[in-house]
Fold:
Amino acid sequence: MSARLLVACLLLTGCAGTQSTLDPGGDQAGALFSLFALMMWVCGAIYTVVAAGLGWALWQAWRRRGVDARGHGDVTHRTDRRLTRLLPIVAGTIVLGLTVLITASFFADRALFATRAAPALEVRVTGHQWWWRVEYRDPASGGWIETANELHLPQGQTVRLALGAADVIHSFWVPNVAGKLDMIPGRTNLLDITARRAGWYRGQCAEFCGMQHAHMALAVKVEPPAAFRAWLAAQAASAGAPGGRGAMVFATACSACHAIRGTGAGGRAGPDLTHVAERRTLAAGTLTMTRGNLQGWIAQPQAIKPGTSMPAVPLTPADADAVAGYLAGLR
Ligand code: CUA
Structure:
């Protein structure tokens, strides 16, 4: 009994979770899961029939071992004739099974791609080594609102993602919601997603893109439309300017690569940091967002994520502390 319980627990915990294709929280992931389930049942049934047939054949062969040696060769001929009569049934079953699977696969594929009405929202997601630039079309101004490594989605609404890449091929994949779709430099791939279940999910780059491919995660939050609109309006605002020494150090040491809207910092090489302290993670899912981790990341990026484009900027301990304090206040 306890063994059965253990197996059941292992199976079920394998299916649930924030990064699982077997726990769909959106229409497109649901279409993929239904296709998977159908294929499992059809292929499972075929496997069972084939295994049973093989078992039966082996049993017959064992039962009749030595019959031919005693001179009853016509038994084999009778079996051959029976099997020949079965052939059209077997062929028909295979053709029917394949037709069902091809049809289901065609409709699942159609459910995944941008073919329907205008989406509620457009979002541009660009893969970089090794982080995600995320830009929302502002419904008010028509301009773009930029953030990084975090994708917020309004529950129940269709969002059209325009996927691209800045350097090498990456792949967008949030298993609970949608994906995967390659992000290719010089090309835009469109992906519609309709998330249904509120909560946090984990996305992961799904195309090997270099040394830190594994550390290219995307935090995804699905929230009710009103909460989403409030979040987007807050993102559109410039940074509250806590100023002070941290802001001054940032302006000289960091602003060539990072932007903070509402200040002079406008670098585009790295992630926009306007509301960085509100994000859940740092360095594309590598660290949780805390002031201590911010300071550690600034001091030793190459130790935390070897190969990252973020250089170790030589700062005095007091300056590093001031910058970390400044960034931790960007909400
Ligand atoms: Cu980006 Cu793998």
Notes: Residues 205 and 265 are 28 Å apart (CA to CA). The chain has a mean pLDDT of 87. The longest helix spans residues 74-112.
